[in-house]
Amino acid sequence: MLGSKNMTRIRLEYFDQNEDFASCLPRVATVLKRIATSNVDDWYHVELDQPIEYQIKVGDPYRYRVVETNHLLIRSRWTDHPIGDIEPTSVFIVLVEREQFPLVTPLQIEKYHHVAWGMCHTLSNAAQQGAPGDAAKRRA
User: Fold this and answer.
1) Would you state the pLDDT for residue 59?
2) Residues 107-138: tens digit of each pLDDT
3) Residue partners of 73: CB distance under 8 A and separation at least 6
4) pLDDT in tens, 36-88
5) What pLDDT score was predicted for residue 136?
6) What separation, in Å, do the N-terminal and C-terminal C-alpha atoms of the chain show?
7) For the purposes of burial, counting CB atoms within 10 Å of the CB of 22, is it exposed (0-12), middle (13-18) or buried (19 or more)?
8) Phi then psi for 22, rounded to 5 degrees?
9) CA dist., res. 89 & res. 66, Å (int)
10) Going by fewer Cβ within 10 Å, which terminus of the chain is more open, N or C?
11) 45, 37 in Cβ contact below 8 A?
């Protein structure tokens, strides 16, 4: 189970919807917990090994400010492709700013910054299953 005692490790890569955010990825992260909104219960709070800095637009007229964080919310974009499976899945990537802690449920996702779509690769399952090339690496 994701976010349980055996913390799931993932790698997030850029997929689409915001080329400006592409330079922030890839990143390795730990899934901390599953969290619900008022209508879905499959958002995941993840902690990045290394923080990202990203410039977001705020206000009208637009101004910009830099957000530095190592916390994200992710959710699979594909039906029947949950986060944590052996096969990668496309995810929504949402920034969580430091001042937005603690996360309160039900989560109001619109209060966070959706920045891009990504691809989520499960690292811990790949290691348990024997990822392609692992045997060759052990022999080397």
Assistant:
1) 77
2) 999 999 999 999 999 997 544 444 444 333 33
3) 35, 43, 44, 45, 46, 92, 93, 94, 96, 107, 109, 112
4) 999 999 999 999 999 999 999 887 787 889 999 999 999 999 999 999 899 99
5) 34
6) 33
7) middle
8) -55, -35
9) 28
10) C
11) no
| Dihedral sign, Cα of residue 58, residue 63, residue 67, residue 73 | positive
Whether the predicted model's global pTM rises above the 0.90 cut: no
- Tokens found for residue 98: 């430091």
| Residue carrying the six token digits 């959710």 | 75
Single-letter amino acid, residue 137:
K
| Secondary structure in 3-state letters for the chain | CCCCCCCCEEEEEEEECCHHHHHHCCEEEEEEEEECECCCCCEEEEEEEEEEEEEEEECCCCEEEEEEEEEEEEEECCCCCCCCCCCCEEEEEEECCHHHCCCCCCECHHHCEEEEEEEEEEHHHHHHHCCCCHHHHHHC
Instruction: Please give the structure tokens belonging to residue 26.
Output: 């890839």
Q: Which residues pair with 55 in a beta bridge?
A: 66
- b/e 69-97 (16+ beta carbons within 10 angstroms → b): bebbbbbbbeeeebbbeeebbebbbbbbe
